[in-house]
Amino acid sequence: MEKDIRDIDKNMSNNGLTATEGIKWFKPYEEPLRLSGFQYFSEDRVYRRLPLSKKVLFERVNNNLNILSEDTAGGQVAFRTNSSRILVRAKNKIGHDMVNMAASGQNGFDLYLGQNGERLKFYGITKFDVKYKEYQCEIIANLPVGQIRDVLLNFPLYDGVEYVEIGVDDGAEVLPPKPFAAPGKIVFYGTSITQGGCATRPGMAYTNILSRWLNREVINLGFSANGLGEYEMAELIADIEDASMVVLDYEANAATTGRLEASLSGFIDIIRKKHPHIPILVLSRIQYLADFYDETLQKRREHYRKFQLDTVEEKRKQGDNNIYFYNGNDLYDDYFDEYTVDFIHPTDLGFWKMAEGLHEVLKKILF
Fold it and tell me: Which of 45, 60, 137, 220 sits 20 to 30 Å CA-CA off 155?
C-alpha cells in the first residue's frame, strides 16, 4: 500500500475548494483593494516587474531579465474586511519546478491579518495540488463576524500569475487598507536572495518582511542569477519617480564576473542624476559556508566588500552625504551555516536574520 500523507495527517492536505457559494470575488486592482509592488501595472495591466515597453530593450541586453520579471516577487494586495472567510483563486504560469524551494514559496500566496493597530500576523497559505497551475483555496475560515481586520496577501516569489481574485463573504464589508507609513517606494535591486529564494512562503522574503515592519511599499527587482549591474537596469530604477530609497544588493551575481567593479560607481551615478537626494544603500552579500573553509573565497569576499565600501566612501568625499554601505556579513551570526537551504540561499530563518539587521539600518537612514 502506497503512503499518502494527506490521508494520515489532514494538516498536510490542501485547502482547495470547488464550491464557493456565498462568496464575492475581487480583482486585486479593484477598489477598495490596494495592489502594490508592481510599478508598471497601471500601464501594462499585467503582473510583471519590468515594463512591457522595455521588453525589446531587455531582449537585447539580457533576456533572462524579461523571463524573471514575470515572477511576481514583491507583489501585495491589502484591504480591510469583516469577512469570516478569505479565499484565493488564481492561475500560475509555470508551476512548481524548483528542487530547493517549497511550492508554497515559489508558487503560492500567503495571508497576514491584523486588528486594532496590532502588527500583522501570518494566518495561512494557499495549499494546492502542484500538478495544476490553476487552483482555488480557502486560506482561512470561521473568523468572528463583525470585526474589521487588516488583510495583506503576498504574491508568489518564483512564478508568474495569469490572474488572481480574492474572495470574501457575500455581504461582508470591504474597505480600503490603512495607508502606508510614508509616500514613496523602497526599491531593492539584486539577486535570487533579493527575489526571495528560498523562502517557504512569500511573506518570509526579507523585502516582504521589511515592507511589513516599516509599513512601506517595496519594489522587488531581484533577478535570480541575473543581478549583473546592467546600466539599462540603473536607468529603469532612476525612472521610478516616486522612489524614496534604493538598496543595491547585487554583489553575489556580479562580483565574480567582474561586473560589480565595472558597474557599481556608474550604476549609482545614473540613479543620482534623477534622484540627487534619496538614500542609496550598498549592501555586500551575506556570508556563505564556502567563505568559512576556502581561503581564496575569503580573500575574494573581503576584496569585494572593501571595493563596495571604498566606492561609497569616495562618493561621500565627492559630496554625496546620503549614500551608505552595510556589510552583509554582519547580518548573520556564528550560526550562519544553519540559515540556508543550500549553503547560499536563506531559509525563512536566514531571511528573518537579514530583515532584523536591515530593519535597524533602514530605520536610521529613513527616520
Answer: 60
**At 86, which CATH number?**
2.60.120.260
The torsion angles phi and psi of 245, rounded to 5 degrees, stand at: -165, 150
Q: Among 175, 203, 229, identify where a domain stops.
A: 175
Residue 252 located in a structural domain: yes
The answer to whether residues 163 and 192 belong to one domain is no
Q: Give 79-107 as a DSSP string.
A: EEE--S-EEEEEEESS----SSS-HHHHT
- Which residue's C-alpha cell is 510583471? 48
Nearest CA-CA partner of 64 in 47, 81, 49, 84: 49
- Residue 277 sits in which domain range? 185-366
Residue 102 sits in the same domain as residue 82: yes
Does 170 share its domain with 189?
Answer: no
The number of domains in the chain is 2
Count the Cβ atoms, other than its own, within 10 Å of residue 4.
9
Cis peptide leading into 137, omega within 30 of 0?
no
Residue 32: cis peptide before it, omega within 30 degrees of 0: yes
User: Rounded CA gap, 143 and 78, in Å?
Assistant: 18
Among 34, 43, 61, 45, smallest CA distance to 223 is for 61
What are the distances in angstroms from CA 81 to CA 32, 102, 108, 149? Answer: 10, 30, 22, 5
pLDDT in tens, the chain (367 residues): 565 656 646 666 666 666 678 999 999 999 999 999 999 999 999 999 999 999 999 999 999 999 999 999 999 999 999 999 999 999 999 999 999 999 999 999 999 999 987 899 999 999 999 899 999 999 999 999 889 999 999 999 999 999 999 999 999 999 999 999 999 999 999 999 999 999 999 999 999 999 999 999 999 999 999 999 999 999 999 999 999 999 999 999 999 899 999 999 999 999 999 999 999 999 999 999 888 888 998 999 999 999 999 999 999 999 999 999 999 999 999 999 999 999 999 999 999 999 999 999 999 999 8
The cell numbers describing 40, all together, are: 508598471
Q: Which of 87, 149, 141, 146 is nearest to 114 (CA)?
A: 149
Kindly state whether residue 63 falls inside one of the protein's structural domains. no
